[in-house]
Amino acid sequence: MSVEGRVVQEREVIQKIKLVTAEPSSLTEFKLALQDSFRVAAEADFGHPLEEPIPSDDDIEKSFNATGAVTYWIMEDEQRVGGAVLVIDPISGRNNLSLFFIATSQQSRGLGLKAWKAIEQEFPFTKVWETVTPYFEKRNIHFYVNRCGFKIVDFYNRYHPDPHQDSRQIPDEEDDEMFRFEKIMKNVDE
């Protein structure tokens, strides 16, 4: 297949995934779906049930209410299959993928990559995308690095804390360690 044919085919695949702005009335449902997705992955990694939801209600609320935040449901054929909270800075072009999930029942179908490509298309002015993920989330690390083209730029831990975290929340356990990723977009003129 020619390069042009693959590009057209890729656009058709991405078009099946839609980003729909989450209405305020659906944010509770969004939060529960997000926590369920994260819970299943974390319990599989830790080998035991979690005592508290992750991310916490407070962390999710902070993401929803951050300056420049936009919350989307990821839709496939009019069905909610995931969601994303983005923090957009149109002035600097440095945007943040604050929260991103595909429902557990919808995983391993390529929807995450399709959704990510739809996000990139939605914000073509982006110069740099940033995100973080826990150190133990091998599936996420693979997704961001090997599928989406992000690079690991920081490893936050008690010796190198996240400068954006409250100093009282400096990681003291491995469970709190995070990788920070960046993706520098090639299609934006400097």
Automatic annotation (TrEMBL):
PROSITE patterns: GNAT (PS51186). InterPro entries: Acyl_CoA_acyltransferase, GNAT_dom. Residues 17-177 form the N-acetyltransferase domain. It holds the Pfam family Acetyltransf_1. Gene3D superfamilies: 3.40.630.30. This is GNAT family N-acetyltransferase. It comes from Marinomonas rhodophyticola. The lineage of its organism: Bacteria, Pseudomonadati, Pseudomonadota, Gammaproteobacteria, Oceanospirillales.
